[in-house]
Amino acid sequence: MERKLEAARIDIYAKITDRIIADLKRGVRPWVQPWHAGGGITRPLRHNGQPYSGINVLLLWAESVAKGLSSATWMTFKQVIELGGCVRKGETGSTVVYANTFTKTETADTGQEIDRTIPFLKAYSVFCVDQIDGLPERFYLKQHDAIDPVQRIAHADAFFAQTGAIIRHGGSQAFYMPSTDVIQMPPFEAFKSAETYTATLAHECVHWTSA
Known about the structure:
The protein is an alpha+beta fold. Helix content is 32%, strand content 22%.
C-alpha cells in the first residue's frame, strides 16, 4: 500500500516538473502572468471562491495560458453537474493535486499499538468556467478596466518600432512564431501596466531572429 502511494506521489511530481520545464523551454515563466486573460489577474479560485494554493496556482496559470482561458474559477465535473452546468464537448480537464495525511494504527514489537501519520498526494481534474455552459451568472467574467492609452511608454514603443520586428496583437498568449518570424502579443489593454507589456514584448523580441 505504502509503495503504491509513494509511486503515485513520484508520478505526480514528475508530471508537474515536466510541465514546468516545458514552459521554461518555451520562454514562459509559469509563476508570472503579467496580462489579464479577460479579467483581473488573480490566484485561481475553487467553485466556492476559495483560492488555490501552492503548486496548483502554477499548474492552473499554465493551463490558462496554454488553452487561452480567461476565467479564474475552476471546478470538478461533479461540481459542474451539481451547479446545473455542462462541460462543452471536446473540452479537457486540467490536473490539480490534493495533499493531506491519514492515520494508520500499527502494532509495535512490544505489542503496543501506535498511530502513524502517513502523508498522501492525489491528482484530480478540474474545468475552467470558460469550458462550461449553463452555470449561474455569477460565475462568468466581468470585463476588467482597460489601461488608459496615455500610460503607454512612448520611447519603448519607438524602440520596438525601429527593430523592424513584425508584432501582432490579439488573443491571450505572448509568443514568438519562428515559422513566420512574427511576435504575437495580447492586446496592450490586457496588461496590468505599461511596464509589464513592455517587459513581455522585450522578452519575445529576444527570441526574434531579425530575419
